């Protein structure tokens, strides 16, 4: 495992951009680092995952600008970009039947509104010159193999493609993007493969040189990062841990991939339609199963925002540095210090947070919602910061509970959470999710479960496993199980009622101001 930073630009509020050249270069640096000291001829397969960001290239596969500045280096509209608010509102007003498969309401973070924004705002510098629009995972697999085939995962989850019926011409014509229909979807993908399928002749000589790997290694059709995380955790053998999901079908498990944002992945044998929750998507994560995907647009990013914006943050930084700890490890120990005899979660009895600072993705599907904090006092010391941090973590867990309740009301039956991603390394975050949902949390032996998911794809492409399911069962391992503290249930049930009241009040305020 080797990290490598990648550049990100925010030229104006809600516009978030990256560079595909920069990201490929980072992949090359990292790959060369992780293969040092090993026999590269032992590497049999390569799998890619990435965020569901939109990459724009011209007909010669050169980057095109997605910005008013005309900077072609910045050719990616990031997943969290919210520039296409007007476009997504118009798309949702069509009430087209494809919207049934995204919870009834399309998100501004999906690709159709972003494509429409490019056509309406950057016609000459970008749209008219464009030859290829890729989801970032598909861009990476193309870069490695020269094959423009798209992954079923990306197209089904973010582009309105149907695994059974293909593209719906009437949708693209209705929203003003009939251009794609006219050229037989060549620019957005007319060859679609299931995740884990082997692409072309494997790694091209040019890509092999860039990555420091032998040419011809099998390369798999990709997955979106959250879906790779789901694949990496959801199939683990849980025998011997005393979990309700032992002996139950895999459909009783919910994978929660929590980093900058959080994604909640539940699968079912038959399609389940949940208002405000994306899907059902057939075979988009686990082949043969339908996927529903709940989500919270900002989670890790929200925690950073709340902590770093507090007056006591410089003091926190100094004290954490002196102890050689992360600020969050320091905050967790500080909470233990100030809780006295009560459970740590009870410190927020008077402080409540509504976490939708970047709108609500699921299950309310309302990008106009804002964040709320109630119960603030004049104090701004370290205790005050620690309790605000705790209340924010709890709010994210309450948001997960709200998503689970919506999924269960729709027909899912969930008994166990499987967490992975950066936030799953935070014991407070994990314990709060167990306590607030009332469900045990399974943590993977390999914390970077998203990478396990990508490795599962590579192992399928190379033929080492006959199916994704077999690879999941063999490559996913349980690391730790965290059980809910059921004695605290009554307290969290009451806090949850307050949590739900916050959004009711917000809607009332908005109605008053509009009236």
Any key phrases for this structure?
Methane Monooxygenase Hydroxylase, Chain G, domain 1, Carb_kinase_FGGY, 17 helices, 7-stranded mixed sheet, globular, 19 strands, Nucleotidyltransferase, domain 5, alpha/beta, 3 domains, FGGY carbohydrate kinase domain-containing protein, 4-stranded antiparallel sheet, 38% helix, 515 residues, FGGY_C, D-ribulokinase activity
**What is the level 1 CATH name of the largest domain?**
Alpha Beta
Radius of gyration using CA atoms only: 23 Å
Q: What is the first-to-last residue Cα distance?
A: 55 Å
Number of domains: 3
Shape: globular
Average pLDDT rating: 97
User: What's the architecture of the largest domain in CATH terms?
Assistant: 2-Layer Sandwich
Helix count from the secondary structure assignment: 17
User: How many DSSP E strands?
Assistant: 19
Strand order within the widest beta sheet: 13-14-12-11-17-18-19
Beta fraction: 5-15%
The low-confidence runs, each spanning 5 or more residues with pLDDT under 50, are none
Largest sheet: 7 strands, mixed
What is the fourth-level CATH superfamily of the largest domain?
ATPase, nucleotide binding domain
Helix content: 25-40%
- The name CATH uses for the topology of the largest domain is Nucleotidyltransferase, domain 5
Structural class: alpha/beta
């Amino acid at each position: 495992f080797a990290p490598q930073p990648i550049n990100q630009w925010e030229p104006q509020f809600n516009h978030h951009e990256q560079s595909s050249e920069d990201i490929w270069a980072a992949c090359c640096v990292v790959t060369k680092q992780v293969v040092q000291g090993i026999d590269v001829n032992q590497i049999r397969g390569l799998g890619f995952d990435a965020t569901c960001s939109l990459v724009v290239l011209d007909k010669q596969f050169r980057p095109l600008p997605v910005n008013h500045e005309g900077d072609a280096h910045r050719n990616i509209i990031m997943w969290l970009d919210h520039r296409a608010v007007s476009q997504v509102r118009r798309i949702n007003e069509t009430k087209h039947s494809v919207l049934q498969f995204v919870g009834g309401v399309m998100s501004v973070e999906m690709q159709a509104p972003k494509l429409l924004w490019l056509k309406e705002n950057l016609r000459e510098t970008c749209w008219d010159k464009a030859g290829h629009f890729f989801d970032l995972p598909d861009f990476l697999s193309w870069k490695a193999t020269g094959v423009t085939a798209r992954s079923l995962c990306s197209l089904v989850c973010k582009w309105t493609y149907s695994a059974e019926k293909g593209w719906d011409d009437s949708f693209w014509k209705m929203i003003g993007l009939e251009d794609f229909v006219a050229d037989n979807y060549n620019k957005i993908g007319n060859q679609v493969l299931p995740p884990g399928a082997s692409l072309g002749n494997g790694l091209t000589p040019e890509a092999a040189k860039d990555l420091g790997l032998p040419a011809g290694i099998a390369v798999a059709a990709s997955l979106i990062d959250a879906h790779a995380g789901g694949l990496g955790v959801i199939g683990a053998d849980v025998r011997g841990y005393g979990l309700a999901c032992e002996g139950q079908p895999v459909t009783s498990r919910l994978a929660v991939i929590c980093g900058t944002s959080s994604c909640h992945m539940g699968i079912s044998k038959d399609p389940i339609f949940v208002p405000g929750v994306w899907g059902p998507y057939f075979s988009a994560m686990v082949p043969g199963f339908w996927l529903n995907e709940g989500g919270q647009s900002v989670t890790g990013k929200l925690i950073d925002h709340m902590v770093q914006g507090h007056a006591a943050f410089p003091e926190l930084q100094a004290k954490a540095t002196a102890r050689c700890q992360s600020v969050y490890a320091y905050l967790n120990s500080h909470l233990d210090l100030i809780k006295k005899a009560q459970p740590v979660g009870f410190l927020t009895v008077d402080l409540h947070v509504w976490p939708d600072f970047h709108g609500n993705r699921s299950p309310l599907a309302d990008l106009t919602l804002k964040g709320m904090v109630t119960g603030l006092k004049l104090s701004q010391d370290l205790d005050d910061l620690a309790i605000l941090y705790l209340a924010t973590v709890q709010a994210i867990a309450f948001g997960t509970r709200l998503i689970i309740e919506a999924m269960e009301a729709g027909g899912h039956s969930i008994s166990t959470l499987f967490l992975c991603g950066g936030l799953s390394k935070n014991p407070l975050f994990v314990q709060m999710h167990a306590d607030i949902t009332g469900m045990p949390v399974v943590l993977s032996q390999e914390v970077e479960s998203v990478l396990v998911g990508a490795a599962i794809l590579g192992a399928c492409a190379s033929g080492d496993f006959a199916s994704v399911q077999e690879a999941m069962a063999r490559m996913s391992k349980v690391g730790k199980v965290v059980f809910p503290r059921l004695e605290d249930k009554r307290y969290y049930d009451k806090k949850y009622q307050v949590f739900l009241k916050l959004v009711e009040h917000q809607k009332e305020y908005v109605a008053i101001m509009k009236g």
